[in-house]
Design brief:
Elements: H1 4-32, E1 33-34, H2 40-48, H3 51-54, H4 57-93, E2 97-102, E3 105-110, E4 117-120, E5 126-130, H5 131-136, H6 139-154, H7 157-170, H8 180-200, H9 202-212, H10 224-230, H11 241-259, E6 266-267, H12 268-301
Parallel strand pairs: 1-6, 3-5
Antiparallel strand pairs: 2-3, 4-5
């Protein structure tokens, strides 16, 4: 993929497909489960049997679907809340800013001893430029920087990055989204560079990058894709076929599992009890293994 727009549309399409499949899984779980208490015979049989052995295929399918759906929803909500709060903290810790105009575009000028320029704000993004950047950059270089950030602001890039990150965290079972946020951010930087180059040519932006390149925090930093682009190479991200296949298999697998669950055939209290017993059985084993592994590592370090 060569453009950030195409990558964002692809990621959004994958996210929409994942949301539809998870919604189908939730419907299947609701249709399949019964909240009525299990019979005394079923309860005694479940208590006497091994936990996994006593789970019927339908019960196991419901347990898997419910776990995947709940985990996905929880991860998505936690990711969204934490990212929104982090973005709010960034804006709150900034020094007081004053309105200014560079290159015919409105910016927020704030006091800082190092060159900084970035776009921040979700619903209504603004361009922030430090006083050090305004002081050390030539006029053409500063205009190129502001044009770069204005491209991010027009496309509401902070909000797009947040959405991509939430999709990646929520749809954890889709491998194609694991590297989505970093790749989208890199291509978005390249697209903003192109906007700056179209306005003033590559020289002012390249010169400005020399002032920002040592930061390494992503704001006008020199990523490999940007260097290649400024040298004339077309940016490209090749999505490995294995990631596409594994993602498709995961989505189709969840959909098939959801379709295979019969309606009203599973006792929710019984499944919850059995899963609880299974967890209480497995956790001590995992704890012993973790302690043994830690002891082995300490012995190996001596």
């Amino acid at each position: 993929m060569r453009s950030a727009s195409r990558l964002f549309r692809f990621q959004f399409a994958v996210g929409a497909a994942g949301a539809l499949v998870l919604g189908y899984a939730v419907v299947a779980v609701v249709r399949a489960t019964s909240l009525a208490p299990p019979s005394a015979q079923d309860l005694l049989r479940a208590c006497a049997a091994m936990e996994l052995a006593s789970l019927q295929p339908a019960s196991l399918a419901v347990a898997v679907l419910a776990t995947v759906s709940a985990t996905s929803a929880l991860r998505g909500v936690v990711s969204a809340v934490s990212r929104v709060r982090a973005h709010g903290r960034l804006l709150r810790v900034l020094p007081p800013s004053t309105p200014a105009v560079f290159g015919g575009m409105a910016v927020r000028l704030f006091s800082s001893g190092r060159p900084e320029a970035f776009c921040a704000g979700l619903a209504c993004p603004h361009i922030f430029v430090s006083t050090a950047a305004a002081r050390v950059l030539a006029r053409a270089e500063l205009d190129a920087v502001v044009t770069h950030e204005a491209h991010h602001a027009r496309r509401r890039e902070p909000l797009r990055l947040l959405l991509v990150g939430v999709l990646r965290d929520a749809l954890f079972f889709i491998p194609a989204l694991r590297d989505a946020e970093r790749r989208y951010a890199a291509l978005a930087e390249v697209a903003a560079d192109e906007a700056a180059v179209r306005r003033a040519g590559p020289e002012p932006l390249a010169a400005a990058l020399l002032h920002f390149g040592a930061r390494g925090d992503g704001a006008l930093g020199i990523a490999a894709e940007r260097v290649d682009h400024l040298l004339g190479a077309a940016p490209r991200w090749r999505l490995r076929p294995s990631l596409l296949v594994s993602g498709a298999v995961a989505l189709v697998g969840v959909a098939i599992l959801s379709a295979s669950v019969p309606a009203g055939d599973v006792s929710a209290p019984l499944v919850a009890m059995q899963l609880c017993r299974l967890t209480m059985t497995v956790l001590p084993i995992l704890g012993v293994l973790a302690l043994a592994g830690a002891a082995w590592r300490r012995a190996a370090q001596r």
